[in-house]
Amino acid sequence: MAKASVDWDTVVPFFIWQFLIPLGAGWAQTVLYSIFIRAGDPKPQPGSPRFMRHRRQILMAVYVAYFAFTIYEVDFDLQRASNAYNDLGVPIDVDESGLQSRFRKLTVRFHPDKIRPGVDRDRANDYYVHLKHARDIILDPAKRFAYDRFGPDILRQCQQCLTTKEFTDNALLSSVGTYGALLVFLLGANALGFMKDGAYWRYLALLAVATFEARTAMRPDHPPFLTAWLNPWMATLHLRPPYLPFQVSAIIKKASISAAQFLGLLIPLYRDDPQRPTKPNDDSEEARHQQLDRLEHVIRDSALDASRLLDLESIPFRDNEKAKTELRDALKKYMVQNVVHQEREVRNAIGQSIVRRRAGVPHGAQGTR
C-alpha cells in the first residue's frame, strides 16, 4: 500500500507539470484576453511575439505557484501525520527524566482504567498503546537515532535491527539504491537526447540531496541549520512544531523533484523562439548538407537559364543548316579560345609579348608598335 502511494505521489505531480499546467495556461490566457481586451480590439495572434510573451508570463506564474503549493502540501502532510514527540507533547531534545514525567501525566489522563464512562474503550486502549510505543522509541537510543533521521518507516522496514549501525546501514543501502537508479535514469535519458535542459542542475540537486542525507545519517547531531536557524525561527513565530531531520529530508526531496521539473520547463520558455528548436550551428554536418543542396539547385537553375538563352539566340539560324553549322563552329572556337586565354601561362605569355613589342615607347603613347 505504501509503495502504491509513493508511485502516485511521483506520477501525479509529473502529469500536472507536463500536461495540466500548459493546458490550463492556454485556457487562462484566453480568459484573460476576453477580460482585459475590449470587444472589437485585436487580440494577439497565436505565435506572435506578444502572444508568446504573455504565455511565458502566465506559465511562469502558474509554475511558481504550483511549486510553492507542492512544498506547502508535503509540509502539511508531515504536520498531519505528526511524530512521536508531538504526540507525547515533549520537545525534540527531551531527556529521559522529562519524558518519564510527561508520560506519567499522560497515563493519568489516557490510561484505559482511568477513562470516563461513555468513552470508546477500544479506541482509548489503542491510543494509550500508541503513546507507549512513542515513549519506547524515544527511550531507546538506537531507535531514537533512527527515528529522528529516517522516520517511522525505518522501524517497520528493519524490525530485526537493534543497534544504531544496523539502522544506519539499512537506510544508507536503501538510499544508495534509490539515488543509483535515479543517476542511471538521468544518464540514460541524456544519452538518448532527452531531459538535456537543466541537466547540470539536476545532477547538482541529486548530489546535494544525497550529501545531506549521508551527513544526517552518519552524524550524531542534527544539521546545524536546523537547530540554529530553522527550528528557533519556527518557535519564535509559532508557525509549526520543530522539524525533525527526516521531515526536512522529505521536504528537500519533494522540493528537488519539483525544482527539476520546474527547471526543465523553465529553460525553454526563455529561448528566442520556444516553438522552434535551436538552429544548428553553421559548421554542423546538417548545415553543410543544406548548403550543398542549395548550391546544386543554383547550378541546375543557371544551366537551365543558359540553355534557354542559347536557344533564344539561335532562333534565326534554326532553318538555315549552313548558318547553324557556322554558328556552332564559331561558338566552339570562341569557347576554346576563351578557355585557353584564361590559363595563367597563356596570360603571362601574352603580357610578356606585349611588353617586348612596346619596349622603348613613351608612356601614354598610342599605336600598334
From TrEMBL:
CDD domains according to UniProt: DnaJ
Source species, domain of life: Eukaryota
Keyword Oxidoreductase: no
Keyword Oxidoreductase: no
Pfam families: DnaJ
Keywords assigned by UniProt, alphabetized: Membrane, Transmembrane, Transmembrane helix
Membrane-traversing stretches: 15-37, 58-74, 176-195
The protein's name: J domain-containing protein
Domain J: 83-151
